[in-house]
Amino acid sequence: MKAMTLQKYGQPDDLKLADHPDPKVAPGEVLVRVKAAGVNPVDWKLGEGLLDALMETHFPMIPGWDVAGVVERVGLDVEEFAPGDEVFGYVRKDSVQLGTYAELVSAHVRMLARKPASLSWEQAAGAPLAGLTAYQSIQRVGVVAGETVLVHAAAGGVGMFGVQIAAALGARVIGTASERNHDFVRSLGAEPVTYGEGLVDRIRTLAPDGVDAALDFVGGDAVDVSRQVLKRPERLASIADHTALENGGHYVWVRPDPADLTALAELSDQGRLTVHIDRALPLAEAAEAWRISRDGHTRGKLVLTVD
């Protein structure tokens, strides 16, 4: 098979398209013919070695955790899927080496769910990591109908999902974004506010009594801003700032979960969740996708398509 490969930690231009043996398929796993692979900031951070102290990595390394594709073969004792099934998933294994930037990837059934019929291959590939991150963050702070939720970086890959999921639960959503993204944030179901100096006052204008929950999907001063407008400090979740743990808040590192993936698929097929694709690039242009991601101004998701 062909796959994008790093021989050692490096920069985007160190990614090369290379031949690899087809993955082995262990008991409980399936082999997926990749149609599209999602690109996430964690991909290039891993590639640069920024998470070396946290995650076991082996080279040559194929990046990527998000996948949408077709089951080609099933391993021993697999009853959940059959060849020909269309699936999507968050393929995070115990070590980083055989990822989804490839024509084929093996994945345990606990990492996959059936692809939503309403989403294209590209949209389905953009959903797992970011969608699960938003979904699990919202679960952690216990959002319910009638509450007001603050979503930081509402136009980004994770924020896009956070806004839609919270709105689907019946919450009122306030989303921070640059002015150029305000119409996009409104289309997702949130009331946009411009981030930067004076953000606390702008949020208080929209929610004078404070917000019930806050979701930090960007870092920076988002945790500090959230604490100033939250009714209860423990209703804070961050994916970027460990200080969210102070005062009973939550730091969220997304986990593969087929039930949560299925919940995202159901929301999609109900017309309550869509995936905006900023750009879809061929697999061989993964380096360019990393450069775009590093720039930090992506609206929605970046994906790689695999012929």
Automatic annotation (TrEMBL):
<dbReference type="InterPro" id="IPR036291">
    <property type="entry name" value="NAD(P)-bd_dom_sf"/>
</dbReference>
<feature type="domain" description="Enoyl reductase (ER)">
    <location>
        <begin position="10"/>
        <end position="304"/>
    </location>
</feature>
<dbReference type="Pfam" id="PF13602">
    <property type="entry name" value="ADH_zinc_N_2"/>
</dbReference>
<dbReference type="Pfam" id="PF08240">
    <property type="entry name" value="ADH_N"/>
</dbReference>
<dbReference type="InterPro" id="IPR050700">
    <property type="entry name" value="YIM1/Zinc_Alcohol_DH_Fams"/>
</dbReference>
<protein>
    <submittedName>
        <fullName>Alcohol dehydrogenase</fullName>
    </submittedName>
</protein>
<feature type="region of interest" description="Disordered">
    <location>
        <begin position="1"/>
        <end position="21"/>
    </location>
</feature>
<dbReference type="GO" id="GO:0016491">
    <property type="term" value="F:oxidoreductase activity"/>
</dbReference>
<feature type="compositionally biased region" description="Basic and acidic residues">
    <location>
        <begin position="11"/>
        <end position="21"/>
    </location>
</feature>
<dbReference type="InterPro" id="IPR011032">
    <property type="entry name" value="GroES-like_sf"/>
</dbReference>
<dbReference type="InterPro" id="IPR013154">
    <property type="entry name" value="ADH-like_N"/>
</dbReference>
<dbReference type="InterPro" id="IPR020843">
    <property type="entry name" value="ER"/>
</dbReference>
